[in-house]
Amino acid sequence: MPHGIKGQRKGYRMVSTGDRGLDKVISGLQLGDNVVWQIGSVNDYREVVGPFVRKALEEKKRIVYIRFAGHKPLLENSKAVMVYQLDASLGFESFSAEVNAIIRKEGQGVFYVFDCLSDLLFAWSNDLMIGNFFKITCPYLFELNTIAYFSILRNRHSFKTIARIRDTTQILVDVYQHKNHRYFHPLKVWNRYSPTMFLPHIKKGGRYIPIASSVDTARLFSGVFMKGSRSTRQNLDYWDRLFLRAEELGRKGVSATVMAHLVDQIARLIISRDEKILQLAKNNLTLEDFLAIKSRMIGTGFIGGKSVGMLIARAILNREKSLQTDKFFEPHDSFYIGSDVFYTYIVENGWWKELMGQRTTNGYFKLARELREKLLNGIFPEEIKEQFQRIIDYFGQSPIIVRSSSLLEDSYGNSFAGKYESVFLVNQGTPEERYARFVEAVHRVYASTMSEDALAYRLKRGLDKNDEQMALLVQRVSGAFHKEYFFPDLAGVGISFNTFVWKKTLDPEAGMLRLVLGLGTRAVNRVEGDYPRIAALDEPLLKAHAGSKDAQRFSQHDVDVLNVKDNALETVSLNQLLEKKIELNLDLIATRDEEATEALRAMGREREAWIITFDHLLSRKGFCRTMRKLLQTLQKAYGYPVDIEFTVNFKKRGGFQLNLLQCRPMLTKGLGSRVSVPQGVSKNRIVFQSSGNFMGGNISMGIDRIIYVDPKAYCAIESQSGRYDIARSIGAINRQITGREKLTTMLLGPGRWGTSTPSLGVPVSFSEISNIAVLGELAFSGNNVMPELSYGTHFFQDLVETGIFYLALFPDSPGVFINREILGAGSKIFSKDFPQYRKYEHVLKILDFRGQGLKIVADIMTQKLMCYLCRL
Predict the structure, then answer these.
(1) Backbone phi, psi, residue 414, to 5°
(2) What is the model's pLDDT at position 230?
(3) Which of 182-186, 431-435, 461-465 has the lowest mean pLDDT?
(4) Which one-letter DSSP state was computed for residue 49?
(5) CA nearest 347: which of 56, 96, 101, 583?
(6) What is the pLDDT of residues 490-544, one digit of tens each?
(7) Strands laid side by side in the 490-495 sheet
(8) What pLDDT score was predicted for residue 306?
(9) By percentage, how much of the chain surpasses pLDDT 90?
């Protein structure tokens, strides 16, 4: 029974091929048959399609022609034949899903003719996906009792692809032209047999004569193979043949025109379909770069946005002679798991039908949960397993990270920041143990494509119908061993355009950094209890302590490290590292805390206390000058602001090594037009006002509604489940907002929105606040609930891409006023529309200001912010 086909056919009724002689050879066709013709030219295929269609029309069968190839049409346009014109260049998933939808729509008993499958090589450029397409399409056709004709060109496909097709189809027939005769050689005919069926047959008139003589058979096949290529490449994957040709041309040297064409061809296979990204790649990557990528690829397909961004950025910076990257750049030796491996994994495990169900409107979220669980537990084909082992062997016991690098990730306008997983592997243990953990990490990243946040992000940005394959970037973790720990000296985020200017004198064009000690997780995430160092590159020693002068409080206290001994990602406190006498380059990254040191001495503990500030590093002009130049160079090449992720390791003799991990274009609105913050507004009309601590450029916006979480009441909720209830209720309110223009909503609440620790803020997911226009975080000092000015984090990227204006209010700071009388008023909207949360009416208020002219105004140059009523 063909692979992937379940159950036996009920009954038997022969269907004609339209050629009686051929019917006798293969005992006719049966409903459910997929018939593959292996041909020398499309004309051979046309010769068998014609009789089949004519006979089917005589018998009043419905004929569907799936047209996608560049060859001449197999069937003429007529009322009798339904023609579907498809575009295979849109990608494997889009094409396969469209074919699936056609089959579902057409239903039972339809007769299909498909264009020559070999033409898909021009769109997909590798055999693997043709085999995958066949494997997922044919069982569905079988279930609906159809008959479908396919063809492939001889010597154009790998043995692996032919085997995959042979394993799936019901009938496979070789068709030869030799010395003015046509020969038919059935290679597989499922569920039928005759003593001469699998011999080659010569067609003479209407008769098919089996060639039983060994002499005649040998003469036929030797003649046929003489016509074919004798090259050892003829059964290589199209993908491999293309890169072998590229290597040859690279060695020989060719004209600039030929080289440009070859680079364009390869870029469209492994870089992107996005023309902006493609142009950027072609401007900065050479043929040697592409061949280097291929040498480190597992499988085929695109390498994904994260890999592309890293490689292009490195190439741009290496070409900028004034930077002298050869002196401070850390080399990379990454591997790339191609996007086709993701779909092959799904097809191999028989989950394609579930994926297509998840892609529907009704199944989008509902079926994702089930598919996510499956993605965590699948198996890979043997050839992929062997290549995974290559990665394990190469890195040995060096720590590595398996990072998402999807097709849409890190593109212009769509960062997918933090939506997909990245998994650190300490990579200790036996080869078998390290391999098992690696595969588990791949599973986790694949499964994250079905996370609710990722799906909501795609839906919100109109990407839910786009082909979104998951490629992977496997990187060596940058850093060094510090006794039982492994981590870099610092990690960070850099942004070329700083819209968070908290002082009039700051220049947004100078860019900014967000720095942490240890692994970069704390630089890109809003981490409970910690504040990374934010440095504006034109005034790097200027601190933004959210209105507070307490440097110790608003600093980093914990460090993310890899524990080599325990083979795990771990968070340790700075104090723990100091007590273990871990070498930390304190003279560069920290400032001595004299007050805390004296307190320790008073307790009889002779140990110095430190605050992570990076002041000494930032006071060195070389570091800041290099980072500023680096960001400006990338912004100029991208024609767009960028953000990067990087690590820094200090050299023993001075200087530093920088490892660029990621680069992506950053969506930003800039400062916007200057606005005027009104003077002399009476306090009873002011909802709040502040100086600084906002992001999103200049703003003047009318507000229809405020959702207000009372800080005192929220902090008084004793149970975590109650605080999660508040988050879920906000999500319910958010979903009712059909458009920001129709109901412009501001959300105000204590501490950090989106925290995973309810004691520090409201634990909403981003999808639960995605329709909000203005997001405000309020400090509540009694419970140490503090906002975090999260510029540079994944959370910030979500705010920017969704166009949400952000502000933080610190009631104890000078110039800050909050009118709790207005905010505490509330309304009955909440209890009426969400009765299940009625018990939280004292915590969560919905205030409707339509008709009262509520307005929020912010001006970056004066750092003034006010939300006020135009009329009472």
Answers:
(1) -135, 95
(2) 44
(3) 461-465
(4) H
(5) 96
(6) 999 999 988 777 677 888 889 999 999 999 988 887 776 678 888 999 999 887 6
(7) 533-536, 512-516, 490-495, 642-650, 656-665
(8) 94
(9) 50
CA 706 to CA 643: how far, in whole Å?
A: 32
> 136 vs 226, 239, 347, 385, 404, CA distance in Å?
35, 21, 7, 22, 25
Q: Cα torsion for 537, 540, 544, 550, to the nearest 10°?
A: 160
**In angstroms, rounded to a whole number, what is the distance separating the alpha carbons of residues 491 and 512?**
14
Which residue do the tokens 């569905």 mark? 140
Using alpha carbons, select from 556, 509, 530, 514 the residue that is nearest to residue 644: 514
**H helix runs in 5-117, sequence order:** 20-26, 42-58, 92-106
Planar angle of CA 802, 749, 643, nearest 5 degrees: 35
Instruction: Check: pTM over 0.85? Answer yes or no.
Output: no
Alpha-carbon gap, residue 465 to 796, rounded angstroms: 25
Among candidate residues 26, 101, 134, 113, the one with its CA nearest the CA of residue 62: 113
What is the Cα–Cα distance from 586 to 766, expressed in whole angstroms?
37
C-alpha–C-alpha distance, residues 96 and 113, integer Å = 16
Rounded CA gap, 273 and 570, in Å?
39
Closest C-alpha among 625, 111, 600, 63 to residue 324: 625
Count Cβ atoms within 10 A of the Cβ of residue 682 and give its class: 0-12 exposed, 13-18 middle, 19 or more buried. exposed
Quote the Cα angle for 795-796-797, to 5°.
90
Nearest Cα neighbor of 198 from 213, 181, 209, 210 is 210
What are the CA-CA distances from residue 194 to residues 28, 210, 703 (Å)? Answer: 12, 12, 80
403-439 residues labelled b (16+ CB within 10 A) or e (exposed): bbbbbbbbbbebbbbbbbbbbbbbbbeeeeebbebbb
Task: Identify the pLDDT of residue 145.
Answer: 94
Comparing C-alpha atoms, which of 110, 101, 113, 131 is closest to residue 66? 113
Residue 337 tokens read as 């798991």
Ranges assigned E (strand) in 601-677: 610-612, 642-650, 656-665
CB-count burial class (<10 Å; 0-12, 13-18, 19+) for 509: middle
> How many angstroms separate the CA atoms of 434 and 566, rounded?
14
> Residue 546 and residue 395: Cα distance in Å, rounded?
43
Which residues are CB-neighbours of 529 under 8 A, at least 6 positions away? Answer: 557, 558, 760
Please state, in angstroms and as integers, the Cα–Cα distance from residue 171 to each residue in 161, 186, 350, 375, 668, following that order: 16, 8, 21, 32, 57
- Tell me the CB-side half-sphere exposure of residue 485, using CA atoms within 13 A: 23
Q: How many whole angstroms from its chain centre is CA 180?
A: 54
What pLDDT, on the 0 to 100 scale, is given for residue 410? Answer: 81
Residue whose entry in the numeric block shows the structure tokens 């850099």: 494
Residues 6+ apart with CB under 8 A from 537: 498, 510, 511, 512, 513, 624, 627, 628, 631
Judge whether 785 and 761 are in contact, CB under 8 Å: yes
Confidence label for 547 from pLDDT (cuts 50, 70 and 90) = very low
Radius of gyration of the chain (CA): 32
Residues 530, 546: Cα–Cα separation, whole Å: 13
CA distance 808 to 823: 16
Say if residues 78 and 60 touch (Cβ distance below 8 Å).
no
SS3 788: coil
